[in-house]
Design goal:
Number of domains: 2
Strand order of the largest sheet: 6-5-18-19
Number of helices: 12
Low-confidence stretches: 356-361
Shape: elongated
Largest sheet: 4 strands, antiparallel
Distance between the termini: 31 Å
Mean pLDDT: 83
Helix content: 25-40%
Number of strands: 19
Structural class: alpha+beta
Length: 428
């Protein structure tokens, strides 16, 4: 489509070649692409993330890193001598009120959440009653969204895991063209096709690195398919079972039967029970002398005697027992699994205190420079996600007549002490 002051026209539509989807389902005579083998990938992914602490932490970190300190509306007036953009702040109250309000904050956080966790986010443009302005952009929960095979409809249903969608429990939205949603939206307005619509679905925001045509794969899925997430699950399971089933004995004390005959002669006691109780009290007192923190590194003295035949009699044998739970190699493997999971997210393990797996979490503290560089790299690499998430907001401003507004992220970066300050603010 193209438009000028005195002419409006359209070009021929080029039909994109889509991947063949064998797993599909039909709703109201329209076919939709299933998400995952059982159409429940987001639910299965949510379960995996919730049960893998390092994965959940890494995803949370990446989403927070993308969000930064919020956005600032500007207009780019040109470039300076170093080719840096020259910004002019936008002081339009409508723009500022929206960007500082709850609707935008909800959209912003939810978009990064779904994009980073599931590889896809589904924005919705909500119109006013007249249908000539967009009042907000919101995110539909990705767990509940499915795309039609022709990519013209978005089906929203509460729980694909439990039942088939029904007409009464679903909402179907028209979806804008993914190649150029703004001009599709403009064309619909000029041709009256927006009348009566309360909302329209913006094309999915997806993980750019995935080649899937319908539902992009999240970055962390490579760690799952390579088995590292399974290893991260099995290590704590092994240690839990080991501690539950192991006998936690440290000392083996062997006392000859003749010792009790000499220490507690049977003839001196009225009954067997009285003698047994005294023996038990003696053993409890002896064990107390061996244990407790106040008896650490205490010397132990025992006696024995030699009978008439010259044999040692009555000697005690006290042997230290080695624990069969050797967890060092398991912890080293767990550290490796944690690092591999973070690598799949392009997160430097040092930023989260994971370090490099040499020994059990060796070097997990990470130097200040490692943390600063890791944080800076994360912010630089998240540029694509940041711009993709802002696309529907910039389309909303343009549709509402607020032209040439660009949204820049406010970032606070850590600096070294020799710079004279601990942090530095910048726009990207």
């Amino acid at each position: 489509m193209f438009q000028g002051k005195g002419v409006f026209g359209s070009t021929n539509t080029v039909k994109p070649v889509q991947e063949r989807i064998d797993d599909r389902f039909t709703f109201l005579k329209r076919e939709y692409a299933t998400w995952g083998e059982t159409n429940c990938f987001p639910d299965d992914a949510e379960k995996t993330i919730r049960s893998t602490s390092v994965l959940q932490t890494g995803l949370n970190y990446k989403a927070r890193c993308c969000y930064g300190q919020g956005v600032v509306p500007v207009k780019v007036d040109g470039f300076d001598e170093q080719d840096n953009e020259i910004f002019t702040p936008v002081r339009d109250k409508e723009v500022l009120n929206y960007l500082r309000g709850k609707p935008f904050r909800n959209f912003h956080t939810a978009a990064f959440r779904d994009l980073i966790k599931f590889g896809n986010a589904f924005p919705l443009l909500v119109f006013n009653n007249a249908g000539d302005r967009i009042v907000r952009v919101q995110i539909l929960n990705a767990r509940h969204c499915r795309i039609s095979i022709d990519k013209t409809k978005l089906l929203v249903f509460g729980d694909f895991k439990r039942s088939e969608p029904t007409k009464e429990e679903t909402q179907v939205y028209e979806m804008l063209d993914e190649a150029d949603p703004f001009y599709d939206l403009q064309w619909r307005r000029d041709t009256g096709k927006l009348k009566g619509l309360k909302a329209i679905a913006f094309p999915r925001i997806s993980n750019y690195f995935s080649n899937n045509d319908y539902y992009a794969a999240p970055d962390w899925q490579s760690a799952q398919e390579s088995g590292w997430i399974d290893i991260a699950h099995k290590i704590p399971q092994f240690l839990n079972r080991a501690y539950e089933n192991a006998m936690h004995l440290m000392w083996h004390v062997q006392i000859p039967h003749t010792y009790w005959e000499k220490q507690f002669p049977r003839a001196e006691y009225k009954n067997v029970e009285q003698r047994k109780q005294l023996i038990q009290d003696f053993m409890d007192k002896f064990e107390k002398e061996l244990t407790d923190t106040k008896n650490a590194n205490k010397s132990l003295w025992t006696q024995y005697y030699i009978d008439e035949s010259g044999r040692v009699n009555g000697d005690w044998k006290i042997t230290r027992l080695d624990s069969e739970i050797k967890a060092d190699d398991r912890l080293s493997m767990s550290a490796a699994a944690n690092s591999e999971i973070l690598f799949s997210l392009m997160v430097n393990p040092s930023v989260l205190g994971a370090g490099m797996p040499g020994g059990p979490y060796s070097g997990n503290a990470g130097s200040g420079s490692d943390i600063r560089e890791g944080l800076l790299v994360s912010m630089i690499l998240s540029h694509i996600e940041k711009q993709s998430v802002l696309d529907p907001v910039e389309v909303m401003f343009e549709f509402n007549g607020l032209h040439d507004i660009e949204l820049k992220y406010r970032n606070i970066t850590l600096t070294t002490l020799d710079s004279g300050r601990n942090t530095q603010e910048s726009l990207t």
